[in-house]
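chain below, 162 aa
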Amino acid sequence: MKKFCYLCVLLSASAWADIACIPVQIMDGDTFICRTQQNERIKVRMNGIDAPERGQAYANQAKKALNKLIYKKSVLLVENGKDKYNRTLATVFLSSNTGKLNINLKMIENGYAWHYERYSNNRQYAWAQRLAQSEKRGLWADKGKIIEPEKWRHQHPSYQSQ
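prediction:
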């Protein structure tokens, strides 16, 4: 029994390890492909945020914003598990002059993603969204056209997430 419990602890610890990688393909404003030093490709879904889907208003802008922030730059993924599509859920960090920059938070602050309240109770993300809304940043500049991606997906049942 002791050996079994020890193995469980080892497996759970390794399953939640931080991952250093370089984004090599941006799928949309919250999903990308990252390549590790071991040349492993990881499909990443940014945890706690939801960006516009292809076909939605501001989808291209969100994708370009994420591209500008992380494409071909060294990032650190703090893994939070897997989603139903087997993508790695992660908080993404980029090293900067002032420390680690939380890219998930930055996408919300810049108005290119919603705080995904259904899966996250992060108060900092909620506050950042309220501020982006009040300052009409990114998609919040055009209140008439925007719809939360989750609601959009329900209105477009044929849409398949990547």
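Residues 1-14 have pLDDT under 50 and may be disordered. The CA atoms of residues 12 and 53 lie 33 Å apart.
thats it, cya
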